[in-house]
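Exercise 7b. Backbone tokens:
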């Protein structure tokens, strides 16, 4: 479903008094379109309807018309500049959402880089995949299991044939 249709459906669900369903739709939209401030504002409205000021502040943080009390709640509950930066779920260039959001994003990134003493990316580093040893052991385990299964099937067939004869 196109983003604008999904956004319209979420707005209708929010207006109908179903903020939880609207919130689910909007979280998906923010993941796909992190630069769309209108989606973030609607997600903040869904959290606001549920009485969650901290998350409303989180999602309205980049918007120009935001509630300062909600933003303060977000800043209180999300300690540390790196965690705040990651909480934005931003992707792409910082100027993609306009000058207001750009300034907020640069402010967050600068605070995170000052705290860590080096460059910080918007996306959290993914944990590395399994080591080569773990992959090799997994492969060996699968191979041994397959051989054991084949052996059991052969033993079962031999037993049945002997029983029938």
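Sequence design result:
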């Amino acid at each position: 479903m196109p983003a604008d249709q999904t956004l319209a459906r979420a707005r209708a669900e929010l207006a109908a008094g179903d903020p939880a369903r609207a919130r689910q739709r909007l979280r998906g939209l923010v993941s796909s379109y992190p630069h769309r401030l209108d989606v973030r504002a609607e997600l903040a409205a869904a959290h606001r309807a549920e009485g969650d000021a901290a998350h409303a502040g989180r999602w309205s943080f980049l918007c120009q018309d935001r509630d300062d009390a909600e933003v303060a709640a977000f800043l209180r509950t999300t300690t540390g500049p790196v965690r705040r930066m990651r909480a934005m779920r931003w992707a792409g260039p910082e100027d993609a959402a306009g000058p207001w959001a750009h300034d907020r994003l640069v402010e967050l990134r600068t605070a995170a880089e000052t705290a860590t003493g080096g460059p910080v990316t918007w996306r959290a580093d993914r944990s590395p995949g399994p080591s080569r040893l773990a992959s090799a052991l997994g492969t060996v385990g699968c191979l041994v299991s397959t051989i054991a299964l084949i052996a059991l099937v052969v033993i079962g067939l031999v037993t049945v044939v002997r029983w029938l004869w």
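Instructor comment: Residues 132-164 form the longest helix (33 residues). Helices lie at 3-15, 19-32, 37-49, 53-60, 68-77, 81-87, 99-116, 132-164.
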